[in-house]
Amino acid sequence: MKKNSILNTITRNRYFRYGVFIFIGVFLGWVFFGKGGVPHSHEGEEEHDHAAQAAQPTVWTCSMHPQIKQDKPGKCPICGMDLTPMRSSANSDEQVDMDAIQLSPEAMALANVETTVVSKDNPTKDISLYGTIQADERLVQSQTAHVSGRIEKLYINFTGESVSKGQVIARIYSPDLQNAQQELLEAQKLVGLQPDLLEAAREKLRLWKLSDNQIAQIEASGVVSPTIDIKANTNGIVVEKRVNEGDYVSQGSVLFNVSNLSQVWVMFDAYEIDLPFLKVGDKLEFTVQAIPEKVFSGKISFINPIIDKTTRTAKVRVAIPNANLALKPEMYASAKIKATLTEHLNQIIIPKSAILWTGKRSIVYVKQPDINAAAFLLREVTLGPSLGNSYVILSGLSEGEEVVTNGAFVIDASAQLEGKRSMMNDQAGTSSTGSHAHHGAEAKTDSKDTKHAMLGVKGACEMCKDRIEKAAKSVDGVLSAHYDLKGQELHLDFNQSKTDLDKISKAIAAVGHDTDKDKADEVTYNALPGCCHYR
Fold this sequence. Notes:
The chain is α+β, with helices and mostly antiparallel strands and 535 residues long.
């Protein structure tokens, strides 16, 4: 009883209660914030991260001379500036090429940068042609006066009138014709003495387009006529009337021009950039505004070899039957052709928006492969024919590369601000190593001597990649070298006045890697680390 009272007294003491609360608080703090708690685990992870980052080698470079790369800080051997750490991507194990332009995710979103993986395709182009219906020049004939005289009567009074072959279109009064008929009658009287004279008189009238029946009637009747009828020599439409009644005409004067519209020409204007896609024999379909519900088809029969210096177009002709005369001269016609450029089948095609032009240079920006960072490298390309919204690429890109198709101008502007190679500056930021660095001078090349090329090289790992790129850059004249491990291709920019692919290939083969041009010897290959063996 006494013990219970003592315990009750102790537990009721307020200082005792305060002590118990303090003890409980200290114990809970140790549990949640001590060595075994969650914060300790986070601290351990952070220490581990810092240790991992410290373990990774840092590459130091000069901002003015990016070809200088060292594994420790110091001074640039060219300009004496302090070296700065080489920029790394968000992933600590990735190194961004010093010539590349790196954008943050926020900058990518603001610039709306989009990329496309390039591939080979057969180039096709939708060509729109516009023109007019014209009379077939081969079916246009002139109706002429066969003899000199005066127009007594016109039976065709206006243009657009239809005529038929053999139809009388005019009557001419001709004193010469009257004299010729009189000569015929006189020669007939002397046929027994001079038979050739009669035949000569007949032939003269035949040349004036009198028929044998008409000549026989004159001989039989003995009556001469001072007038002669002019008959149409073709079917068609009068497209030009050149005389009126009462006009005096000489032999051979044109009275009318008559066009046979049973076949017409459709004359389209083709711009010179579209001419490589068009050839004689190509089939096309066209419509005319006057008959919108009907689609006509025909084949190209002729392409004018001469370009109009004002419109920069050439005439493309399509001949088409017009039996019902539905197509009339000067009607507007429009055609669409999906043409294939057979000379450039299975070649790389990229959108027009990916290309930046400056003078004679055409450049694109290619995403640096094998890393997750948004880093882009300038690449010069050679353009082929335009396909409207895209271009054929003759050289400078390989299948599978990722090219910027939207936002290239923003990336180029960043390159200009950073003093690197750009659309307006082909010299800045040119990487070089080897003899360039040893001589202590920047690599300076004329853009016309700079060439981009690709070389197939065998490799198996990242060590191979570094070895191949280092061997290529050691060749005097090589400006940049990037090895695509996945595609087994080495992308090169080099001064072709100093070196060529053969020299670069031999340098790479000398360190143990087979190329498209040279094979590494067995001794050098076997000396490579086991992870580098690719055979």
